[in-house]
Design goal:
Blueprint (H helix, E strand, L loop, with lengths): L3 H18 L15 H6 L11 E14 L2 E8 L2 E8 L5 H8 L6 E10 L5 E12 L15 H6 L1 H7 L3 H21 L3 E2 L5 E2 L11 E4 L4 E5 L4 H9 L4 E9 L11 E10 L3 H20 L6 E4 L2 E4 L5 E4 H9 L6 H11 L8 H12 L8 E7 L8 E2 L2 E12 L2 E8 L4 H12 L13 H9 L4 E7 H8 L20
Parallel strand pairs: 3-5, 6-10, 14-15
Antiparallel strand pairs: 1-2, 1-4, 2-3, 4-5, 7-9, 8-9, 10-11, 11-19, 12-13, 15-17, 16-17, 17-18, 18-19
InterPro entries: Aa-tRNA-synt_II, aa-tRNA-synth_II, aa-tRNA-synth_II/BPL/LPL, Lys-tRNA-ligase_II, Lys-tRNA-ligase_II_N, Lys-tRNA-synth_II_C, NA-bd_OB-fold, NA-bd_OB_tRNA
Keywords: Aminoacyl-tRNA synthetase, ATP-binding, Cytoplasm, Ligase, Magnesium, Metal-binding, Nucleotide-binding, Protein biosynthesis
Subunit structure: Homodimer.
């Protein structure tokens, strides 16, 4: 005996065959000159029960209701929904049969006239039906929808069509990216594209994805950062340069991490990390204004709280925050080790500043409501960063935190090739061959020997920025197709 799903699938095929029998293509052709539904709604007559102007619309069937010799359908496109009114007296036999062959989720083109019902509902009185695509897969239950969030992520098409707010949020991501580009362009930055395939994984401490190029017989990695190639371009005279690109790290997945993600990196010759603070504020503030309007408040909701992005953002040093939350000075190795032991952090055989970093993460980061620039990190944690002139143990670096989440990372860039090579080699010592920074990037060092101007550099995670500004629960809500584990067949 056929299951309900099989019977529904069979009924859809029968309706598809009916459309073919009527001499129509069930998968449609081009349908020119149709209006976005939002525009069609705006053309409604002032009075109810009076025909307005002729319109042509197209969309997906979302609802079907019967009332005697009338049929009421709802169709939707990216701009909204509108009601269709089918009257037996307005349509010939063929058109009525075409209408009857439509199902939920089908795509259809409509010619008709605008009409406002007695209840004031904007509608289109249908004069002609054009099938544009017969949907063979039935939609989710109209009352309960799809309850499994994993299914929605795996089938993003369903999520976009049937889950309220998803399409709007993902489209807002596009507006954020457009705004970021505009902010940088307005400040004279040039957008470039650099290689995704690298011979050496550099610019960050992360585990790369490995691949192999057959023709050259060489092992390659997918890039873990954009930094080193962009700096080479700055050496070559492109003094303000940026890239918005995909970056790949073979690591875990959670609310703020995805193995492939979008990163902005920007470099400004003759600037420093303070220049990058100003740029970071401008990027975020301008994105908020694009989303909410030029005069809207800069306070936005996120995770049930309000975040005030009115510049200037708060600025606190790493050392002060460590002392405040960990209860000891970060230079006091004995006190830091005791705090680490209290927190269950391993200390044996580890560099003291690495332990400091772990204690900072455990005690400070979650308390950072923000937006707050955390500045002046231990230099040993920052091998690509210029040291402070009056204190070489401190690196001119900041990270921007909002609600405990790192949103941006920036340096005054190190441009001394001898010191850079020394730091690279000390960083690589003892690392396993497969680790991300286990090979020296000699081409980058050669570029530094040619001469790179003093500069500020900035990295912003675009997925996290979109998550924050759209009040999403996690970054997979603002990535069109996040990484998920395949379902075993």
């Amino acid at each position: 005996m056929a299951s309900p799903a099989d019977r529904l699938a069979k009924a859809r095929i029968e309706k598809l065959d009916k459309i073919v029998a009527l001499g129509r293509d069930p998968y449609g052709q081009r349908f020119d000159d149709h209006l976005p539904i939002a525009q069609a709604r705006a053309k409604q007559p002032d009075e109810s029960g009076v025909e307005g102007e002729s319109v042509r619309v197209a969309g997906r069937v979302m609802q079907i209701r019967k009332a005697g010799k009338l049929r009421f359908y709802e169709i939707a496109d990216a701009t909204g929904q509108i009601q269709l009114l089918f009257s037996r007296g307005d349509l010939d036999e063929e058109q009525w049969e075409l209408m009857a062959a439509l199902d939920y989720a089908d795509l259809v083109g409509i010619d008709g006239v605008t009409w406002k019902t007695n209840t004031g509902e904007p509608s289109v009185k249908v004069r002609a039906v054009t099938p544009l695509c017969k949907a063979l897969a039935p939609p989710p239950d109209k009352h309960h929808g799809v309850q499994d969030p994993e299914l929605l992520v795996r089938q993003r098409s369903l999520d976009l069509i049937y889950t309220e707010g998803v399409r709007d949020r993902l489209l807002k991501r596009g507006e954020i990216v457009k705004s970021v580009r505009q902010t940088l362009a307005d400040r004279g930055f040039v957008e470039v594209e650099t290689p995704v395939l690298h011979t050496v994984a550099g610019g960050a401490a992360a585990k790369p994805f490995q691949t192999h190029h057959n023709a050259l017989d060489v092992d390659l990695t997918l890039r873990i950062a954009l930094e080193l190639h962009l700096k080479r371009l700055m050496v070559g005279g492109i003094e303000r340069v940026f890239e918005l690109g995909r970056v790949f790290r073979n690591e875990g997945i959670d609310q703020t991490h995805n193995p492939e993600f979008t990163m902005l990196e920007a470099y400004q010759a003759y600037g420093d990390y303070r220049s990058m603070m100003d740029l970071t504020e401008a990027v975020i503030v301008n994105a908020i204004r694009v989303l909410n309007g030029p005069d809207a408040p800069l306070t936005i909701p996120h995770a049930g709280k309000e975040v005030d992005f009115t510049p200037p953002f708060e600025r606190r040093t790493y050392a002060d925050l460590f002392r405040e939350h960990a209860g000891c000075d970060l230079t006091d190795e004995a006190a830091v080790a005791a705090k680490a032991k209290e927190l269950g952090i391993e200390t044996a055989g580890r560099h003291p500043d690495v332990v400091v970093g772990d204690v900072f993460e455990a005690t400070v980061e979650d308390s950072l409501e923000g937006p707050i620039f955390v500045t002046d990190y231990p230099a040993s944690l920052c091998p690509l960063t210029k040291r402070k002139a009056d204190d070489p143990a401190v690196a001119e670096r900041f990270e921007l935190f909002v609600h405990g989440m790192e949103l941006a990372n920036a340096y005054t860039e190190l441009n001394d090739p001898r010191l850079q090579e020394e730091l690279f080699r000390s960083q690589l010592a003892g690392q396993a061959e497969e680790d991300s920074m286990a090979k020296l990037d000699t081409e980058f060092l050669q570029a530094l020997r040619i001469g790179m101007p003093p500069a500020g550099g900035l990295g912003i995670g675009i997925d996290r920025l979109a998550m924050l500004l759209t009040d999403a629960k996690g970054i997979r809500d603002v990535i069109f197709f996040p990484t998920v584990k395949p379902i075993a067949e």
